[in-house]
Amino acid sequence: MDFFFYPSSVAVFGSFKEGAIAYEILRNIVEGGFEGRIVPVNPKGGTVEVAGRTLQIRERLDEPVDTAIIAVPARIVPDLIDEIGPLIKGAVVISAGFSEVGNEGLERELVERARRHGVRLIGPNCAGIFGVHGKFFGSFEVRVKPGGLALISQSGAFGGAALAMGNDEGIGFSAFVSYGNAADLNESDFLEYFASDENTKAIALYIEGVKDGRRFLKALRYASARKPVIILKAGKSAGGARAAASHTGSLAGSYEIYRAAFKQAGAIEVEEMEELFDAAKAFEMYSTAGKRVAVITNSGGPGVLATDKLERLGLEMAKLSDETVEELRSFLPPQCSVRNPIDLIADADYERYKRTIEIACKDENVDSLLVICVPPIFIPGEEIAKAVIDANCAKPVVVNFMAGELVREGVKLLEEHGVKNFPTPERAAKALGWLSLR
Description:
There is one protein chain. The chain is an alpha/beta fold. It has three domains: 1-125, 3-Layer(aba) Sandwich (Rossmann fold), CATH 3.40.50; 141-285, Rossmann fold (3-Layer(aba) Sandwich), CATH 3.40.50; 287-435, Rossmann fold (3-Layer(aba) Sandwich). Helix content is 39%, strand content 20%. The strands form four sheets. It has a seven-stranded mixed sheet, with helices on both faces. Strands 2-1-5-6-7 form a five-stranded parallel sheet, with helices on both faces. Strands 15, 16, 17, 18 and 19 form a five-stranded parallel sheet that branches. Strand 3 (47-50) and strand 4 (53-56) form a beta hairpin. Helix 3 (77-84) runs parallel beside helix 4 (104-116) and helix 14 (381-390) runs parallel beside helix 15 (408-416). The two termini are 27 Å apart. Residues 4-98 form the CoA-binding domain. Its EC number is 6.2.1.13. Pfam families: CoA_binding_2, Ligase_CoA_2, Succ_CoA_lig. It is an enzyme of class 6 (ligase).
């Protein structure tokens, strides 16, 4: 499926009036820096100006391209696929009006026409795709920065919101695909593809339901054996399942069956969007982490909250060795607690944090570290961020800098060095919990 996510040429079909879906997709492709050939197609012809470029609109596609993005009325899509089938490898059908509104016959016809020409389909009723490392933004959703997360979403709107939230959370993406009705390619195909994609470190999947449970389980096992797969399942309740059926025309089925399948395949299930991104952030930094955690904090309360959450998640507070305790005592003020959690007290500075992280990291009883910083107004958050960055530690270090204006610059500095911040002690603890599952 490289022709979808790393295309060298693309044709866009639809209206190129400003504000129309095809125009917005075309604008995203151009503004996103796509370096391949771009062919806008509309029977009326003419030109379109987008992002400082003037493109000739072809009246019909008359040259081969890797992928077609189609945003025309549903009723004419099958005929269009028949016409352009010999010239394309894949089609992304944005158009709605198929099985999701009871028009199964038109959807079947679309698939039959595509198969006749050996064309693979994404959609219909979808929001498009991104191949971020190929600088290909074939969707009307917000563009994202390059990174390691592939987001597969049955819902286009959820996908769009997730991309925007990912930007806010400092997530880097390798790809995005909204697959809508999954008339041809579905979640199983994308799981298998991204499991082998060298730019993808982790896969996030939003699903409401699947049509072929056996195939899905096989694909999920395959992908989870190679990369972390994070799943957010909607349609768990009876009302949610009914809503899912009306949304994409898929059967949500019994949630208990899904939950058992996720567990059996080794996937990581999360409960809400916030958790999906926290898990993604964790796996963008590390592939795994052990269960024995050292907590380093400058505030007792958050340290206690982190400890509570870690133990509820089945992780252990690491028992520091006598040598570690003695080394910490040798330079920390007497008011500091050198047991786990290690409380550096409010005036902890760069040196106190850096040395403590390095000493705890050397302890063979410690698998990973959770570093909490609630900076007082007289110590800049960036100073502590620099200590985390400079500390010599080869074990997973998850950080919780809080909160707001006091830590903004520190969090920015951390992110510039690939260290993701988790805004609460509990969310940082959960990140270590997910890493421990791999």
